[in-house]
Amino acid sequence: xxxxxxxxxxxxxxxxxxxxxxxxxxxxxxxxxxxxxxxxxxxxxxxxxxxxxxxxxxxxxxxxxxxxxxxxxxxxxxxxxxxxxxxxxxxxxxxxxxxxxxxxxxxxxxxxxxxxxxxxxxxxxxxxxxxxxxxxxxxxxxxxxx
Length: 146
Hints:
Blueprint: H1 4-15, H2 21-30, H3 37-46, E1 49-53, E2 59-63, H4 67-78, E3 79-85, E4 88-93, H5 98-107, E5 113-118, E6 122-127, H6 130-145
Antiparallel strand pairs: 1-2, 3-4, 4-6, 5-6
Helix pairs in contact: 4-5
């Protein structure tokens, strides 16, 4: 699951037309997140946001529909190790990257995944069975990470 700032960014772009990084930075600041333009730029990249023309005619930030490619690139860049124990998959990441990788994984809506939780460098993925955990590891290793 994404961190609170990422959740807020996604909520903001759903609720209103955000046309610039400065506008997004200002809105985040109103909600208690004092971030730099560089952080906003990284967040936009991590969340795979794109600008699209909306009905108002303005080019606004929206969620990208190209999640698998972004997820693959992100996973390749940040994942160190994937393993499972019973019905839980454990994904070890570079320090500070687990929440973004987990957000990307969540966007895939893999039906075998019951839920995810991310810390600083580790993601826990819960499945309903050990067999499903094996399937997730195989999927991640061969199609996304590998």
